[in-house]
From TrEMBL:
InterPro entries: Sel1-like, TPR-like_helical_dom_sf. Pfam families: Sel1 (PF08238). SUPFAM superfamilies: HCP-like. This is Uncharacterized protein. It comes from the Eukaryota.
Amino acid sequence: LHPGALYLLGIMHLTGEWVKKDIDLAIWCFHRASEK
């Protein structure tokens, strides 16, 4: 595995983590909004 591929995998992993957090946050916000 050459450095470029490893770097790309790292970016994809970090992006995946952030997307997951964003989705959790969006769902939480949606629930909060629907309670009102």
